[in-house]
Structure formats: C-alpha cells, structure tokens
Write a structure and sequence with these properties.
The complex is a heterodimer. Chain A is an all-alpha fold. Chain A starts with a helix and ends with a helix. Chain B has a domain of 173 residues: MetI-like (MetI-like fold). Chain B contains 14 helices and two strands, in the order αββααααααααααααα. In chain B, strand 1 and strand 2 form a beta hairpin. The longest helix of chain B has 40 residues. Chain B is globular and about 75 Å long. The chains are: A mainly alpha, B mainly alpha. Chains A and B meet through helix 1, helix 4, helix 5, helix 6 and helix 7 of A and helix 1, helix 3, helix 4, helix 5 and helix 6 of B.
Amino acid sequence: MIRKYSVLVSLAVLAVVMLVPFAIVTLNAVRSPADYSANGPLSLPDGLYLDGIIDFWNRVDFGGKLWNSLLISGSVAVLAVVLSVFNAYALGIGRVRGRTWILVVFLVANTLPQEALVYPLYYLSKEVGLYDTRLGVIIIFTVVQSAFGTYLLSSVLGRFPHEILEAAALDGAGKWRALWRVVVPISRPTLSVLLIFFFIWTWNEFFLPLVFLISNENQTVPVALGVLQGDKMMDATMSSASALLGILPAVVFFLIFQRTLTRGVTVGAIK
Amino acid sequence: MAVHAPAARPKAARRPEPRPRRRTGGYWVFLLPSAVLFAAVILVPFLMNVGISFTRWQGIGDPRWLGLDNYTRLFADARFWTSFRNNAALIVAMAIVPTIIGLVLAATLFDYVGKKFGPRTASVLRAAYYLPQVLPVAIAGIVWGWIMHPRFGVLNEFLALFGMEPRGWLGDPDWALPSVMLIMVWFQIGYPVVIFMAGLQRVDPALYEAAEMDGASWARRFWHITIPQIRPEIYVVLLTCTIAALKVFGPIFVLTRGGPGGATLVPSYFSYQNFFEKANVGYGAAIATVLTLVIIVVTVLFLRVQDGEDGDS
C-alpha cells in the first residue's frame, strides 16, 4: 500500500517540478513591481496587477508580433501541406521513376542544419528583395517543412487503395481531379495532423526568423522576445510578463490541438 | 527548436509493386513546383555554402579563393573543439538523459500507474511532463533566463531559503553549461515519454501478464519486455534528439550567447557569430559545413545500427 502510493507521489512531485516554472512566471507577471521589491518572487502576489503585461504588450506591439507569427505559420502550414501532397502524390501513388532517390533527397534536406543554408539564403534574398519580408520567411519554411511532409505522406499514400483510384479513373477523373476529389478527402486526417505540426513548428522557429526579420514590424513572437533578453529595460516583473506572453499562445495551441497532437506525435512511430 | 516527430522509414521503397502499372506516367508534373523551390531554397544555397567555405569573404566584394585554409584553421581553433565538446554535453542533456528518464517514466505510467490508478491519472501526469515541449525553445530559454537571473532570479531566492549562497548560474563559467543542460533536460523529457507510451500501446498485454504470473519483478519486466519491445521508438527518439542537440541555437542565443568565455559555445552559434557578427563568412561556412557532415554521419551510423539490429531479431 505504502509502496503503491510512494510511486504515485514521486511521479506527482516530478510533475509539479516540471510545472513550477510556468507557475512562477505567471505569479510574477501579475505582480506589481512594488510588491516584488517588498516580498520577492516566491510569495503569492498582493492582487492581480495587469499593468505590467499591458505595458509590455504596448511597448513591443505584441499584437503585431502575434499577427506576424500567425500569418507566417498559417501560410507555411497550408502551402507546405499542398506541396507535400503534390510530392507524395507523385511518389507514393504515381510511383515515378527514381522515387527512392528522390525520397532520400527529401530526407537529407530534412536533416540539413539551417546554418548550412543561412548565409546564401540571406545573400540571395537580398538580391531578389525578399530579405526582411514575411514572404521570404514563408517561402523558406514552406520548403523546409514540406521536406518532412513529403517523406511522411509518401509512405502513407504508398498504401493508398488502388481500387479507389481505378474507380475514379473509370468515372473519367484525370490525375488532377482524382487528387482533389479522392486522395485529399480520404487522407484528410493525416493532412490535418501535418497542418497542425507545420503551424506549430513554424511558430516555434527561431534561427532563420532571427536572421531574416530584422525590422521590428516584421518580427515573430519568439524573435521579438528573444532579442529583448538582456535588454536594460527588462526588470524582474517585465521579464516575467514577456515570458508569460511567450508561453500563452503555445499553451493555447496545445489545448486546442491536444487531441490531434497526441495522436499525431506518434504518427511516425506507429508506422 | 522543433523536435520533429519521428519519421517513418521509407517503406515504399521495399514494398513490391502492387500490380502492373496502368495509367502511370505524367505524375512527375506534380514534382515540378517542389523541384524549383528545392533548388532555390536548399540545393543552391547548400552548394554555395560549401563553395564559400573555401574562400575568404566578408559578405561584400569578391570572395578570395583559399582552398582548404579555413578547414585547417578550424581544426587548429580551440574554440571549434570547445563548441563540439559542449555539443556532446548537450547530446547527453537532450538525448541520452531524457531517453533514460523517459523510459522509466513511460514504463511506470503505463505498466504501474495506468493499471493501479487508471489511465486518466497516467495521461494527466503525461500531459504535465509534456507541457514544456509545447514552448518555442527560445521562449523556454526566456523563462529560465529569468528564473536563473543572477540579480533578481527566483532560483537564488529559493536556494536562500535553505541558506545557500547565490550564484551567477548562466554567467558563471563553471555553472553555465550545467545550467543549460538542466534546462534542456526539463525541456526535452516530455517527448520521449509521449513516444514511448504510444509505443507501449502496441505491446501485447499477454507478455506482461505472463511475466507477472512467472513472478517477474517490475525491474525485470522493464528490462526484458519494455525495452526490447519499444526498441524502434528508442532509436527514433535518440536519433531525432541527437540531431536536435547538434543543431541547438535558440536557447544558447537567448541564455548565454555562447558565453561566458565560450563555456556554452556550440557550432551553430559559432557559425552565426562568424557570419553575422564578425563578417568571417568563409570561416562561418566552413563551420556550418563541418556541422552538416557530423549530422549526416551521425544519422547514417544510427540507421546502420538500427538496420543491423533489425536483421538480428
């Protein structure tokens, strides 16, 4: 009996340790600076003080950063899924010649470190006027994410029931119609998992957006908050406000997408 | 950083042709958009980067051909070796430790908590361990940068309750790397827990029941059933986390910028510095090229070992 509960208690303690950083950030984001200097960071705050968060929100134009992140991540998610579907249609269903090698290329592209692409991309994007634009970042991440998507979807579509495609062909559907009317609707569950993954992965990206989005009005949430680290204006409560604003969207997405995500995180492992 | 979900190995390649091809051909058209975009965003930049690594270039003007000079300089550069040594430490923190802890947690949650307290308790605990994983890694860095702040950090305040001395943590050359490692363990644990628990779902319950009837202890079941049964998941997690550790940039940028005195320098930040702070583009490109090679070698080794194991069983 004691042993039974001691296991549970130690697991629960670990869970609390994992969650403490979230709690402590939240506590101090809603604490007034006066309360902070009087009572320190560990006590419960005197009351709900939201001015710090509002202040920080306005100072960094957080609404604008959220919009940039949403726009970039949303566009990349949709475009990368479309691109992945095209590729996987050709590789998994069309079985074009040399598909094994093409898949290897996508796999290698997926493992390449962005450091090995960043300077030429920086240089080329300046040449074509895409540097420091959201469009430039959208194009780059569409390609990066679709490398993984192609790889995953090709193996899924490789097992697509051919009878259905043949039936569609008998009905006179060409390849283009078969793709949109048959393959896409039937693969919808996998595609929605991919869509969410691409959205969140792009939201979480830091390195390339840091390099490419230098002007304030183009920056994403992680970049805007990341470059403020160590800034002189960041006192204790302001820092926790910034951390909380970074945490909130991620947690909201997690709650919204939780079911799809926990199903999806295992998508590859089960196959 | 995004830890990518483990990819399925391309099964398509091994699968026999389902039936004689009909109405094939013409599908390659669908590859065209990707072909153009991949050439522009990945292939050409990658080859340019390799090319640049053989030159001296400041980002403007004409690059000057150096041959292998950047590489010989690199292999004699103590900072380069430091960066890879720190990378090894981060592989421990991001791949090895989370895998071990994740195995124990997943097995306990699945084989003990799930059975004795119900699957809801197990999934609530799993969600708690997974929560850090949903953060952008740069944001995780911001959270911990604040907690470990030398002046107003919570950690020092907390340790003071036990009469412990305040430390500089991320600013202390001796403590910076262990601090970053700790943060990354916190960040990573949820990923193996979720993957391993999913893997355990497909293990035949009869195996556990039979072992229990034979009086096998939890430890023996863990060692002889859990680990062998979810070996594929263990490989996937080790590989993806090792690659993520080799590429790590966000937390280092946010927390330490490679400092103090190179104590937390990693190859990706080292190349970033050379590209964008020192305008040593050729040298930065050489670092990035070496990092690429290391990642490819690690991946190939992993896949080799995995295939070998598959063949044995």
